[in-house]
């Protein structure tokens, strides 16, 4: 009888712990939304922050985060996919491949603050980019690249071998097979992975403190000339992202409503991360259905 | 004037003699090799730049490595300045090990739940939930830690709420997804026959889990834990917000402490580049870098054992 | 064969990277012409100036400079000038202005105090522009039951000799110290002028770099003591008198209250016309009498005493 009782207790404990994890997550999200939602308004999302007065918003920060994400993805995706193709299709089982695999692994486990410091040293100081979106995007690329490589590699490995062989049998070159048969097949998985990675990039702050900076110049949202210092599109202007803004508000915020702004901004950040998550999941499922024609 | 045109023609001829698919293949190959080369260049430049900055204090003879690693007093502006990084090493080690100690049982139980007890509920509810935890930005964790965990600890226990425990709690939630996903992978790749055999012998589920599944998957579980520790070790902002930042080797869980990452975030902006103080902060970054290599090495060792 | 190919490719990429770096560099230069580049184009004879200014450094000074720069750029006289303000800490600001990456370095303390020993020459190249005065007051949680501390009492508290508020005439409550990291300019000012010497990093004390966090902590934590720039004070914390003297504007300007420091904006060499226009604007009565005082700073012109690098105070 005794082992049975232990079994019941153990099962109970395990289910309990699973419940606790769910409760932590639910509590976390409910708390953030509860504290922040009441502060979110159209005005909050679009107006610039105020240093001393009530009623500041997070408009430029939101724009910076999204723009920086786009810049990062423009650099990361082609590089990551290219390296991922190498890993899954061209790499032979030899020492060199093992070495490159190690490189990817190490790169993905570097603390983000170290990557930020590297960005400060190389992009900001050595390349004279100063604190800028470009420097931030490059630092985030270093941070995101190994993830993209893994996503691509796994996605390509998921493509059935027959598809690849059929392509090669038709006399297509290996590259052409990859390009026009395997990549489209792997596209849903790459897409889903990329969106999830985007969520991670969106919330990153430590790597940006020393690269994209903690300030945003006055932006003129009617000026879309990327070379103009006031243009929001200028990649060589400093940019404070939403995540960095939350950090700064929590420490230096002097506006009377700083706690509300921090709560509101956290809620916005969490909502966007949730959107990325569910978006990736739903998109993945939709494409999967279309491909497999199941209901 | 003539010769460049001729050369161009010649080049065009040569290209046209190449069959199209070989040219394609070459373009593709050059592209992917370039991407990979970029990865390698990136990592070498990271190591090179951080190391060349971080080694300056030792090379110039201003600080001895052993003094930095074992010194207990951090007084960079004192007379004479003292650079003992032991408090930060200890702080980093404490928070990440305690975080792992909290996250490990939780992660294992979650994995057992998802693979052995209720796979359907697990896949549909728990798995997405844990992935979501991984997606929450670290500043948000810091914000929650500062506004929930610190006040809670301050009201429940003696002390100010800031300290090792607050940092560990925040980190344990942050690394839970890492630990869980690796444990889940390990449990789900277990041969079904193993489990069925155990059940057939009359063992209860818990006995099977405890006596069979846990020992066989232990190396993989450890891999997850080491990866979790590695992530906790390098986390900066969330920890800095809740740990209190006093540069002392902590003597209790509730005492304010500092980590390698928190001291870098705090002091990097206040010091002038090229000064000894600033360069020593780069040495701390170098220590972080070396630790990363160490963690990767341990993970590799464990993975090799797991495969056997 | 394969390996050599990889090698060659690595080299190519490395070279491309280097080239990219250069390109980006040029891009940055053309994207935002620095003040010195474009300054000669404008004549001093009242014609509109144009160019960009980058001011980086102290987070304590940053809000003021940001506020003033917004007004400055809105002024039609200076519409050709664009000012960017960055944080990054006093040390970062000084490093950047010294290295030529920024046009102005904002700092809470004298450059000579940061550039020491081997670097002392670097400070000599910098020109100091003192734009405001900020006073620092010891602050405590409102419930500690003390409203005045002597210098000796402060020294005892910050060196760990006194650990309970009742020993300095307050409630029976443990003292929690909220200090700044050792590199902080505010800490240096407080140590030099209020304590008369370095304070200790006591075990169990909390260290935060930013004034906002310090204010929050002192307000929330029972028995907490810290120090804050006057511009951050509000009713969540209690400003303590120092040696019986209130940190009021009058006491500061007359030098009766000693814990105050200049906010510096350093330029490398004499400022270019564009940078000078901005600094002059910042020093104008219009700004000094409104924005500077509104934000809790004290105009330099109001000070009846002056202090030099070594801390010697003299009457003006």
TrEMBL record, chain A:
InterPro entries recorded: MetI-like, MetI-like_sf, Phosphate_PstA
Keyword Cell wall biogenesis/degradation: no
ABC transmembrane type-1 domain sequence ranges: 62-280
Taxonomic lineage of the native organism: Bacteria, Bacillati, Bacillota, Bacilli, Bacillales
Membrane topology category: Multi-pass membrane protein
Keyword 4Fe-4S: no
Keyword annotations from UniProtKB, A to Z: Cell membrane, Membrane, Transmembrane, Transmembrane helix, Transport
Record field: transmembrane: 12-34, 66-87, 99-127, 133-151, 181-202, 261-280
Localization annotation: Cell membrane
Pfam families found in the cross-reference section: BPD_transp_1
Protein name: Phosphate transport system permease protein PstA
Highest taxon listed in the record's lineage: Bacteria
GO aspect biological process, one term: phosphate ion transmembrane transport
GO cellular component: plasma membrane
TrEMBL record, chain B:
Pfam families, A to Z: BPD_transp_1 (PF00528)
Listed transmembrane segments: 30-51, 93-117, 129-150, 162-187, 208-229, 281-302
The keyword Transferase is annotated on this UniProt entry: no
GO terms of biological process kind: phosphate ion transport
Sorted UniProt keywords: Cell membrane, Membrane, Phosphate transport, Transmembrane, Transmembrane helix, Transport
Single GO MF annotation: phosphate transmembrane transporter activity
Ranges for domain ABC transmembrane type-1: 89-299
Superkingdom to which the source organism belongs: Bacteria
Localization per Swiss-Prot or TrEMBL: Cell membrane
Known role: Part of the binding-protein-dependent transport system for phosphate; probably responsible for the translocation of the substrate across the membrane.
Entry's family note: Belongs to the binding-protein-dependent transport system permease family. CysTW subfamily.
PANTHER family assigned to the protein according to its UniProt record, in alphabetical order: ABC TRANSPORTER PERMEASE PROTEIN YQGH-RELATED, PHOSPHATE TRANSPORT SYSTEM PERMEASE PROTEIN PST
UniProt name for this protein: Phosphate transport system permease protein
